[in-house]
């Protein structure tokens, strides 16, 4: 592992100085390499799948692990899309002309070496590796043991493409899965070789990473996301946004988990929204008012307000106006994504200002919490911390900066 | 301590929503309060000074601790200057108009609660507290035990001013000095109550903070800063910049510690630069070429290349061109501040691009490494890490951001 760290640091040094054109050439070669390795990748994937099935892994797990020619092509295409992004390195973020004639620029630079720890989805190998490379960073990837053969085949194809473009093949390294201590070492920063760790996987992985990491982490533990509906919200709009926020996909971190409704909207919005959710097959756990509005609503317990179901279940509660909604979100939320549905512009602005979440929305679905939907091209994850990166973490947030000062012999008095 | 954390978090919530005008009003009241408390502050300072002298503290320590009416006025004035800075909160950092009509803004927000651990300079109480407040953050300050009475008097005056403006007096809290465990607790984040720690003091303090902190740290351990001179550099310019970089103040982190000179400049620049330094009273520790150029130069040992003297001492070495200079800086530098002196624009651009330091300069003194000189108004410190803040940490770097999304009922397909 120490050797992997040293090689990553050396690769990061070369990547930091690589031109946009060379990084794009490398990623094009990577995409072509993945396509060319399709047979090998699928053969290794078949071995991983056979093991997963004989180990009795659930169908959802097997699905995440499964590749087919279409999915391999999608992986290659995603790499090409990352190659087409604007280069996040070398942007002039600010300039300061000083009275003494010094010209000072804040310029974006790569972060360094990024450790990515993921579970079953083998496409993360290509996605995360390509995002790190486009931002001039080296990546150390730790795949789940169940997807290791598939990830290895993808990583080998990537390394070849990178080397073809004249960049170090060590730019993207996969940690040997046999090394049981690898995750622990990565979380301590591998002796200064890793600058930041990104966990990609379920709650238990993120929890362990956040608890044990001695280096910065870009992550979110959960998305207990709220949709708060006021009486002035157009009912049809509210219905479609609530349904989409909860049910478009129930397993994503941007899915809504709690519906808050102003008591003033109880007579107009409550029953229709509950009916829409229940008719669509969603379980609703509500307070007394919600249960009175529809007999299919089950009683909510205190724990429901803080639960990320990741399933077709929603908690529902009436609140006494905006302040009560803000209090509820501050108490039970997870600083991920929260939405207000209202025609009251002042209330919307207060909600957007006061809710302390990475993403706050007015009259739009919480399911837009996604780097692609933000126009970032791709994301390595969504972060709920306040340090460095927050919200969808795209290539821009995988950079740091430095100051370039140009003078003509100035000295400080 | 847990209570201090809870109160800071509550204060941070209120500060995050405070208007620019209210923050300015609070800081004006703080400045007036410090002026009004001059007698109390000086009386407490006299007690601290008496203890420091009877404990046999060195003169430099006593000087850093000493206040007089002029210094109290300077502290108040510095707070007013911070109040006059542009509000770093609420800036729209980027906007994204999406094809579906969503308008997405990245808007700056406060970081939260900032822990500042400092030693003898009591003015840090006011400086750091005011910077945190202007950026909408609560501050938990840990003063050195030797300056505690002075810092307490200043903090009390500040709390009164803050409360007068209708902001929570807990916005700036001073940790009781009796609590020996306070620093350790702050470094673990005080149970989630502290978002980032800033150490202000000597090497041993920063070393301990960097080693033990479980929360992010904005700091630099040392500034082993280089001035690299090429043969094309104007000699008079080089002489004045080298002298200024080393000797303007030898105890600041932006002072130069190593002079690198191209071998091609040995015949033209070496002897005059050494003579200027030696004549000005600077000790020079050099390689063989430097010793041959001036008999007053002492031999440099390997350790000299990695030493931050913070004194009138400089290491000097000849290098074989730009690549060798870059290698030397990569090997021995501390990623703080490095300068190239040259008339070769291409060499300067390569140096600015390739040296991985927070601040890189062309034809200017390393002593410009300072938030005030950058136009930031004030700084809480200088950071050499790559996460979140780098270089002089002013009010802007004491902020985070969030995404505000405004829609008209959009749902995600």
Automatic annotation (TrEMBL), chains A, B:
Keywords: Amino-acid biosynthesis, Cytoplasm, NADP, Oxidoreductase, Proline biosynthesis
Catalytic reaction annotation: L-glutamate 5-semialdehyde + phosphate + NADP(+) = L-glutamyl 5-phosphate + NADPH + H(+)
GO cellular component terms attached to this protein's record: cytoplasm
InterPro entries: Ald_DH/histidinol_DH, Ald_DH_C, Ald_DH_N, Aldehyde_DH_dom, G-glutamylP_reductase_CS, Glu-5-SA_DH, GPR_dom
Molecular-function annotations in GO: glutamate-5-semialdehyde dehydrogenase activity; NADP binding
Pathway: Amino-acid biosynthesis; L-proline biosynthesis; L-glutamate 5-semialdehyde from L-glutamate: step 2/2
Transmembrane segments: none
Subcellular location: Cytoplasm
Domain Aldehyde dehydrogenase span(s) in chain numbering: 6-276
Alphabetical list of Gene3D superfamilies matching this protein: Aldehyde Dehydrogenase, Chain A, domain 1, Aldehyde Dehydrogenase, Chain A, domain 2
Family stated for the protein in its record: Belongs to the gamma-glutamyl phosphate reductase family.
Stated name of the protein: Gamma-glutamyl phosphate reductase
Organism field: Enterovirga aerilata
Lineage of producing organism: Bacteria, Pseudomonadati, Pseudomonadota, Alphaproteobacteria, Hyphomicrobiales
Encoding gene (name): proA
């Amino acid at each position: 592992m120490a050797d992997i760290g040293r090689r990553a640091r050396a690769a990061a040094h070369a990547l930091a100085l690589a031109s946009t054109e060379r990084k794009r050439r490398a990623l094009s070669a990577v995409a072509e390499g993945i396509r060319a390795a399709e047979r090998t990748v699928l053969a290794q994937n078949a071995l991983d799948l056979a093991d997963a099935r004989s180990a009795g892994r659930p169908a959802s797990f097997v699905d995440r692990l499964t590749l087919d020619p279409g999915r391999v092509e999608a992986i290659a295409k995603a790499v090409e899309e990352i190659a087409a992004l604007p280069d996040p390195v070398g942007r002039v973020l600010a300039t300061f002309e000083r009275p003494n004639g010094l010209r000072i620029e804040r310029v974006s630079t790569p972060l360094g070496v990024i450790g990515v720890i993921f579970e079953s989805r083998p496409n993360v190998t290509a996605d995360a590796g390509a995002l790190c490379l486009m931002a001039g960073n080296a990546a150390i990837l730790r795949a789940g043991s169940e997807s290791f053969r598939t990830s290895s085949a993808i990583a080998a194809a990537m390394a070849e493409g990178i080397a073809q473009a004249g960049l170090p093949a060590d730019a993207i390294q996969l940690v040997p899965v046999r090394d049981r201590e690898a995750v622990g070492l990565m979380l301590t920063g591998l002796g200064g070789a890793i600058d930041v760790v990104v966990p990609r996987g379920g709650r238990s992985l993120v929890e362990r990473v956040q608890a044990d990491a001695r280096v910065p982490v870009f992550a979110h533990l959960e998305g207990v996301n709220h949709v708060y509906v006021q009486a002035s919200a157009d009912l049809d709009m509210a219905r479609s946004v609530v349904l989409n926020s909860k049910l478009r996909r129930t397993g994503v971190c941007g899915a809504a988990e709690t519906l808050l409704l102003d008591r003033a909207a109880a007579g107009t919005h409550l029953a229709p929204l509950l009916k829409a959710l229940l008719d669509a097959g969603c379980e609703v756990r509500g307070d007394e008012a919600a249960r009175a509005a529809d007999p299919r609503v089950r009683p909510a317990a205190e724990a429901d307000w803080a639960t990320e179901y990741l399933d077709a279940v929603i908690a529902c509660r009436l609140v006494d106006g905006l302040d009560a909604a803000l209090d509820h979100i501050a108490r039970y939320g997870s600083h991920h994504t929260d939405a207000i549905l209202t025609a009251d512009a002042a209330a919307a602005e207060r909600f957007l200002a006061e809710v302390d979440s990475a993403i706050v929305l007015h009259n739009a679905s919480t399911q837009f919490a996604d780097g692609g939907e933000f126009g970032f091209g791709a994301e390595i994850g969504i972060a709920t911390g306040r340090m460095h990166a927050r919200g969808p973490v795209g290539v821009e947030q995988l950079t740091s900066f430095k100051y370039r000062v140009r003078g003509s012999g100035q000295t400080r008095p």
